[in-house]
Amino acid sequence: MSPTNQQVLLAARPTGFPNPTDFRLVEAPIPEPADGQFLVGIAYLSVDPYMRGRMNAARSYADPQKLDEVMGGGAVGKVLASRHPGFAEGEYVVGMFGWQQYALSDGRGVMQVDPRLAPISAYLGVLGMPGFTAYFGLLDVCAPRPGETVVVSGAAGAVGSTVGQIAKIHGCRVVGIAGGDDKIRWITEDLGFDAAFNYKTESPYQKLKELCPAGIDCYFDNVGGSITDAVLPLMNTSGRVSICGQISMYNLEKPETGPRLFPLVLVRTLKVQGFLVFQYASRYGEALPKLAGWLQEGKLKYRETVAEGIENAVSAFLGMLRGENIGKQLVKISDQ
Amino acid sequence: MSPTNQQVLLAARPTGFPNPTDFRLVEAPIPEPADGQFLVGIAYLSVDPYMRGRMNAARSYADPQKLDEVMGGGAVGKVLASRHPGFAEGEYVVGMFGWQQYALSDGRGVMQVDPRLAPISAYLGVLGMPGFTAYFGLLDVCAPRPGETVVVSGAAGAVGSTVGQIAKIHGCRVVGIAGGDDKIRWITEDLGFDAAFNYKTESPYQKLKELCPAGIDCYFDNVGGSITDAVLPLMNTSGRVSICGQISMYNLEKPETGPRLFPLVLVRTLKVQGFLVFQYASRYGEALPKLAGWLQEGKLKYRETVAEGIENAVSAFLGMLRGENIGKQLVKISDQ
User: CATH top-level class for B129-278?
Assistant: First the structure.
């Protein structure tokens, strides 16, 4: 255990793709919990695409990340000391603890996690925010029916890989789009996607046309941009599009233009729905036992790419933005 | 009454904006109804934006209009002779009778209309397809709540003018976008829109920002393109967009590009839904008494732009595509 609390701050707002110099690693004293607080020793940090948006000055759905403050983000760890009646020393918890080794919490937005159900890191992935995102974004927004064709972009990420497997569990034909042959092998050979292709070496429109002979009924979009341009013309009448992420555009210095898609939304009578997992917070309790059940039955698998040490949080984040991870990108902070 | 049946055929598929030479006026004998058929003497034809799409060779939601055949389209008229048990001579009917003076029908898709409830021409407008389009596209797709701000493009057309009034009836603040000062005067002074502006002389984004100080909750889109680009950034979180038409693009020779809108769909968690009124066919019976009731109470008004004679059907259609009509564009064929 480190004697101080190492923290990563946002030092500057990135323009375009972030630089390591946009962040700063600092040391602070390990804080003491006051009445109603507890101290968490962090085991794993999550780095996620949404964090890039929060680094901009403009408010989107949440307030921007403040400069010179600890980078916000989900983390899982152990309660080391508690003066809070609801959280006991030794319990494992998940919450928005930020990019640091130790965090104080008053319990808001924090959930206890069960380390017997799954390794605690899973609560940042398949049993956490990415899992809930996949669950509600697919089942609630797309509502796929057995036999329908579901296409997922960002298919080898934490969310996309879960989406595809949930669609398989629901009897769909699933086609994944990802950026790497190793990713394609994983989602088809290990996860059971019916087909997948590497958008970096194949023409998305041509491949989708070949792999979706009955057209596309549901599209779970993590990336946007030219991949989405290729999907939309292949959508069937009354198709549903779940907009979960648009990572291809998060690092653009200027907004890009593209073909207008609303005419297709009209003639195919599509529903295109943007969503945020937080909208479903009151229903996480519905998703968790389902996801945990599928995990235990072996119907739902996951993979993690784990960087070691808080000093590697920034490079893990940048690597995730470049698509270098397979499955959930984590940063291991300690053996809590 | 003309001794023959004058008909307008599609002579060539237009490229870009249609030319009068893409159509041909011909004469045919007045047909005789066979068993199970009836003859309609047409009083009014409807010309509608959707017809432009059907003139292209590509299938969209319906099969293309066939070349050298009578232009399809809604019309209202009187049963002149009947060998069909469900339709009696002297009854008024609305159906897809096409651009001609007389039509044979077997009754499929034909409804009797009540001339005591409203002038029969209204069954091509506020009590017909455009009225149902407005009713379901607003209430079912956007589901506006009292106090919400509803923006309508193409606001002085048959659909848009009805949408705005239905939104007012439901307690919304309504802002219309149209292309002409006379249109703006009509929808604000006569129809009770809270505000409106002429997109040809004002900046849509600046005007909308000024006229929608609480943001936009619902957008009923008839036009697409740069007007929609101006609306989307002003949408509130969880806003709803009903895509009814994209007339600004129907006559483009090449698809145009524009700013990508899906990132806004994501961060504002918008629902964007394309719809066709035919999807609601089983519920027309729900809409008709509502629309007729509002009409009789004076809460719903309409206006017609009427061209005279089948020889003017093409120019009426082209004028409608150029936005020259106010309210519903009709062609009067006879005094049936």
Answer: alpha beta
Q: Which two tokens stand for residue A237?
A: 């009448």
CB–CB contact B274 A268 (8 Å): yes
Contact between A262 and B228 using a beta-carbon 8 Å cutoff: yes
**Inter-chain residue contact B256 with A258, CB threshold 8 Å:** no
Distance CA A115, CA A335 (A): 13
Contact A266 B260 (CB under 8 A): no
Count helices and strands in chain B by DSSP H and E runs = 9, 16
Chain A touched by B53 (CB under 8 Å) = yes
Among A181, A188, A140, residue whose Cα is nearest residue A161: A188
Closest CB from A60, A259, A272 relative to B265: A272
**Chain A environment of B245 (Cβ under 8 Å):** 266
Class level of CATH domain A5-125+303-332? alpha beta
Q: Using the beta-carbon criterion (under 8 Å), do A260 and B237 form an inter-chain contact? A: no
pLDDT 10s per residue in chain B (336 long)? 457 999 999 999 999 999 999 999 999 999 999 999 999 999 999 999 999 999 998 877 778 999 999 999 999 999 999 999 999 999 999 999 999 999 999 999 999 999 999 999 999 999 999 999 999 999 999 999 999 999 999 999 999 999 999 999 999 999 999 999 999 999 999 999 999 999 999 999 999 999 999 999 999 999 999 999 999 999 999 999 999 999 999 999 888 999 999 999 999 999 999 999 999 999 999 999 999 999 999 999 999 999 999 999 999 999 999 999 999 999 999 998
- Cβ of A260 and B265 within 8 Å? no
B129-278 has the same fold as B5-125+303-332: no
Q: Where are the domains of chain A?
A: 5-125+303-332, 129-278
* pLDDT given at position B309: 98
* Test the A interface: residue of B235, B266, B279 with most A CBs within 10 Å: B266
The whole-angstrom separation of Cα A107 and Cα A110 is 5
Residue B58: closest C-alpha in chain A: A267
Interchain CB contact of A246 with B (< 8 Å): yes
> Does residue B252 belong to the interface with chain A, where contact is any CB pair within 8 Å?
no
Cβ–Cβ contacts within 10 Å for residue A90, how many? 9
Asked if A221 reaches chain B (Cβ–Cβ under 8 Å), the answer is yes
Q: Is B243 on the interface with A (CB under 8 A)?
A: yes
pLDDT at A48 exceeding the cut of 70: yes
pLDDT reported for residue B2: 52
- Chain B residues whose CB is inside 8 A of the A261 CB are 261-262
Among B243, B259, B279, the residue with its CB nearest the CB of A255 is B259
The beta-carbon neighbor of A260 closest among B53, B256, B264 is B256
Contact B262 A221 (CB under 8 A): yes
Q: Tens of pLDDT along A159-190? A: 999 999 999 999 999 999 999 999 999 999 99
